[in-house]
Structure formats: C-alpha cells, structure tokens
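Hello,

Following up on my earlier ticket. Below are the two sequence lines again, exactly as submitted.
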Amino acid sequence: MSKARQLLQLPGVFEMHRGGVITRPTIAYETWGELNNKHDNAVLIFTGLSPSAHATSSAVDPAPGWWEEIVGPYRPIDTRHYFVICVNSLGSCFGSTGPASEAPDTGEIYRLNFPVLSLEDVAAAGKAVVDFFAIKSLHTLVGPSMGGMTALAFAAQFPRCSRNLVLISTGVRSLPYSIALRSLQREMIRRDPDWQAGMYEPGQGPIGGMRMARKLGMISYRSGAEWQQRFGRERIAGERRSGDPFAMDFEVEAYLEHHAQKFIGEFDANCYLYLSRASDLFDLAEHGGSVEAAIGSIQAERVLVIGVESDGLFQIDQQRELAAGFESVGRVVEMAELPSIQGHDSFLVDMDRFRPVIDDFFAVG
Amino acid sequence: MSKARQLLQLPGVFEMHRGGVITRPTIAYETWGELNNKHDNAVLIFTGLSPSAHATSSAVDPAPGWWEEIVGPYRPIDTRHYFVICVNSLGSCFGSTGPASEAPDTGEIYRLNFPVLSLEDVAAAGKAVVDFFAIKSLHTLVGPSMGGMTALAFAAQFPRCSRNLVLISTGVRSLPYSIALRSLQREMIRRDPDWQAGMYEPGQGPIGGMRMARKLGMISYRSGAEWQQRFGRERIAGERRSGDPFAMDFEVEAYLEHHAQKFIGEFDANCYLYLSRASDLFDLAEHGGSVEAAIGSIQAERVLVIGVESDGLFQIDQQRELAAGFESVGRVVEMAELPSIQGHDSFLVDMDRFRPVIDDFFAVG
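Thanks for your patience. The regenerated structure is below:
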C-alpha cells in the first residue's frame, strides 16, 4: 500500500449505474502537485484494469509508480504546473471499495453480493474526488486502456467537466475479440476449485486460475514481434528444468510465469471478475443512443487519441474511430499512431514514443 | 470413426526422433482416387493439430471431411487425377498410435509413458504409408498449419520424396507468441484436477481444462475483424441467460462454448498435450544447422506458399520467410497472400479465396 494514498469516504448510498447500491463507499486516490487558486489546473487519470492509484513516486512514497516516466516534475504531465489526481477504480482492491471490501451495513465482505459494476460507476467515483476538491472543470482527463473507456464514461456523464481529453489505446466499446479473451480469463478463475463460487477467504483465492488469467492477459497485452525479438526460441537454463515433459522449457514460458507469480499476490480474484465484466459491458452508444450522439455531447475542446499499430486488444481502428468521431463534431483532435512493437502495453513501456506525444499536448495547454 | 479409415501396422519398433521407441505403432490414413501404374500421382496431406485423416467424403464414408471443398473429384486436388492420402498424425487419437493407445508390449495405455513426440516422428509415420504404397516420389506434399511444419519435417528428412510442396499458414519454426499460447493451453489442461497427472480413465479426462484450451485455440485461430462482423455486441437470447453475473452474456461467448463443447467429446487430453508440445519443439534449422541449409537440401521443384494477412498464430512474415527461402535456392515459388479475415483458420473456411490458388497450382502440374 502506498503511503501517499488518500481515502475519501462518500456519505450515504452510492447508486450503481445498472441497479443496486453500495453503502458509504471509499475511494482511494493519490495527488501530486498543487491545486491553484482558480482550481483549473487539475488532471484526472483513470487506470487500466489492474493498477493502483500510485501512478508515480513522490517524497511521501518514493516507490516508482505505474506511469513513472509520464507524471512528475519536468515530465510530460508536469506536476510543477498541474495538480494530478489518480484514482483507484471503484471495484478494485487497492483502497477503493470493491467485492473484497467489507460492507459497512452488514459487516460482511461483499464478494458476489457486490452489485454489477459498470465503468460509469468507476467514473462517478472519480467525479466524487473531483467534487471533493471543488474542481468545476478539469484541465485534462486522461485514460489508457480500460481507463480510456472510463474517461469516456466520465465525459458522457459529466460532459462539461473537462476541457481536454487524452484517450490512449482504448475504444468506444468492447469488441467481441476482447470480450472473448476476458470471458476466458473469468472462466479460468471460476473453474478453479479454490474460487469456491466467490467464497474463498481473503488472501487465499484461486491462485491457479488467477495465474492463468494473468498469462492470457500478458499474451493479449504484448505482441508476437516483441517476443520474437526478446526471446526467440531461447530455452530456460538447465537447472530450472524438470523431468516433466510439459514443464516450462522456453524462455517465453518463464517470462509468463514470472509475471503471473507477481500478479497473484496482489490482485483479488472477485475484484478482477467485476472489473473484467465492467470492461465487456462498456458501450459509449448507451449514452444518447449512438456513439455519435455521445461524442457530440462531450464538451472537451481538445482531444488527443494515441493508438499503437501492434495493439491486438484495442486495435488501431478503434482509435481511428474515436479520433474521427471527435473531429466530426468539430473538436480539435490530435491522433498519434505509434509504431511501438509492445502491443497494448506500449503505453507502459515504450516511453520514448509516448513521452513526446503527451509532452506536446500538455505543453500547448 | 470414419468407415473409410485404413490402418497400417508397422512391424518391430519405431524409433522416435528425440529418443525412446514405440512398439508396432499403427498409422491411420484414408485415400481417395487411384494410384497410377507409375506410382507418380500421389498427394500426401498432413493435418493441423486436431483433425482426423478424413479430409473429404467418399462413397465409403459420405460424411463431409475437414477439407471437403479442396479434395475430391472436380475439386482443386482432383481425385480423378491424383491418388490422395491423408494421415492421422502419430500421437493423435483417431486411429494412429498415441498416448491414448494401448502399448502392445505392456497392454497398458501409454499416457505419459509415451516418448517425447516430434513432428519429425509424425512425418516419418506418414513416410511409412508412402512406402507401403511403393511410392518413390510424391507428386505433391501438402500441409496446413502444424501439417505444414510436418511437411517441412518430412521434406527435410526425405528430401527427394516430393516433387511439389504446398505449405499453408505455417512456418519454419514455432515462434514465442504461439509457444506462449500453447503453453497456456497445456497449463489449463494440466491444472484441471480431472487430468490426474495424465492417469484419467479413457473418456473421462479433464473436460474443463480441454474446454478452455479449445476456447483459447479458437481465439488464436480466428480474428477480431471476423468476430466484429459476425457478432458485434449481440447478446444471447434471454432464456439462455442465468442469474450468474459472470455467465455467458454475449453471442461470442456462446460461440466459443459451442465449439469447446464439440471438441471435448472428440479429442484425448494427453494426445493434445503431446501434439501441442511437438509443435513448440519444431525448428527446421535443426536439420543441417540452419533454415537455409535445410531448405537448400529439399529437392522439390515447385513450392506454393499460402499465407493470410489476419493470421495471428503463423503471421504472414513467416510465410514470406518460407517463400524467400525456397526462392533463394532456385526453386519455382508461388506465394499467395490472401486478405481473408478469418485468421489462421481461413484455410478451413474461406474457400472462395483458397480454392482458386490451390486449383491453379495443381492445374499446371
């Protein structure tokens, strides 16, 4: 847990987008920089499915964040000028209320009694933090991956709340290919006997299922071209090999195992299931009846859309659709199509390509 | 089981490429058309990982085969002119000896006592059928997907045994992306408690694991563009939906479930594991020290390479590498890059694009 984490507890009940309520939810967030007197220099960042609110390091918590090279002093989102907020998604397990949290009214862990989660709820929870700081209008709303869909859900629900929009490796809706991948990830978790229909004890969940879900995640987040460069057909060192004919043999298998191992200790399985399904369910067209209507309602002045050619999860066409949509309603749109080979995850690793694009956008504003 | 299936039992022991032996293995195959007096009109087809030898229908077995529109009278591989042989891969479970077969010397089912399987073994088993028919030189050797790697393993081991080569959606080796996918599929099966470390009773294997492995197979065999056209965000009919928040909701999920259901009754889990690992292990460079050396040794006159732009499993670059390799050693090469949207599986479904390319190649010969 980051020492820099702040918690905001909402009073009363929080009504969920698709029905049901949760009582007095907590929203975890971190901030960097100073909110100015006019309260007009705030940047709100929504995350992908699994990160916490710890986007970058600070004096309070020097541990590197998930977007360390993008957020901070003298970095593209420059915390000397901007007041940056990153929220942990509602439904997640890094301080915000989710299926792994205790329901304050019953004292029981929500587990599968948590109501259906939508990205609209994640957005509304972020809005509560914005309101808490008495920010009427954000300078910029930023979201990569699932965070990009959350940013769209935010903008559709609060259309005048941000002057600029940065949408990265995301789309106006989930397409069947990504739904299929997530559906299979959920099945891996749900078929693990240790899932116990969601009733596992905290910290003891379906480790085997989570490990496999993370591996499939890695496969869909990266690209074949990158792995060919990194691993080729390298074999793992002899001493790590066992007699089992189906044990790990190739370096790429060890790489997946390493990432899976890191993940399982961190993320709660039920939270994963809820956020995964929330991603499937998102369709911007539900706001106003069509994507065009939804985009037309969003009052952002400038929009930056970044997509990556090797992204198999949110393919470049989805970014082009977003850019064209905002252009057609007269917004100033910049579209960057990056030749990164790291696939969907490029925004986390191909900093040499992402840094200048984000830097340029914030430099003008 | 196809009524047209023939069985060839090899005498003595069959030495495996990576060590170990199997005793008196059986090779299942089917044939269509007539072998001519000169024995020079034979076409040998190796299959992908999961099909049987039943490539097409016949009077004896009118059930449609897995390549029904390609093989038969008046079809691209015209059985009025060619004597077509399709073999069930050694290690598979449709008549050929594999991990699900009884070892003749012990009376026990092989299970994990089956030696490490290589595509070189699958190729050598096919060669035994060729020898059985006293065929010195095949007119054409054909292989899609894993069958294409098997065809390369055949040509590298028996370099003068085929005058023409048709390689479809395949490559000179398995790359880390496909190894990662197959490794995860194997993990799904091996983590299923019903796998019982390979000791499950015949017909009772790890159904949950196999179902998921097949779903991941479908995800890697098709393409996002195709599913977007076919399913978009269609929901399944109300009556098929349950109250479970993570049950199937989208049509694409029902489609995967349907295919998985069909598969689990058919394919043996241990056989799947062995064939999957055999695919990982294949590297044409092992024949002669480099891909160039291996290709240079293969004495085929004409080579047809077909690749599909949307193929994520054997990407189009791998077909280009193959075509360039054969060209560099002076073979007559035709390379067809097809704009099919059905991904790796296009050779099974996009018949309007595949038919004319294969037809042209066989028409000249």
